[in-house]
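Late entry, written up from scratch paper. The run itself happened at the end of the previous shift, but nothing got recorded in the book at the time, so transcribing now.
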Amino acid sequence: MTTKTKTSSKPKTPVDEANEAAGEALEAMVSAGRDTFETMMKTGMDACVEGYEKAVALGAGQVGNQNAAYEKATTMGKENIETATAVATAMRAGFEAMSHMFVENLKEATAFNVDYFTRLAAAKSPQDFAAIQMEAATKTVDRAVADSVAFNKIAAETFSNTVTPMKARLDRMVNAVIRPAA
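Output as recorded:
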């Protein structure tokens, strides 16, 4: 006699077949969902890594740009300070020259006035008195003209020495900032 392993020989009902079909469909859906989820996670991670790498590269580029801009601003600030120093030095030199001229003018005027009044006191006739006054008037006008020319020369030199560094700085700024932007 042959021994047969008994298997469920029970015939499948439509419910069993439907359950089995539903289970297979569910397994297929879970498998497809798992595959979709894994693909979605991999794509998301890849996109995240790519975005991070781009952000790092962009950030590094921005840092480089900021460093260059900072260096340019620092250089411009240093040049501005050097220009301001040159202008202040030129103005100080002009002020010193004017002050020196005022002091010398005051000394000369004092000496002239002492001499003038001494000579007037020593005048013996109206003709001497008139001659001394005429000479004093001529010398006063001549000195005023000469002093005016000297003061104007100092003022013009001071102005030129003050404006020259500012003009040079402005020209450099126009070449560095405005022309490249145009």
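The CA atoms of residues 62 and 68 lie 10 Å apart.
(Scratch paper discarded after transcription.)
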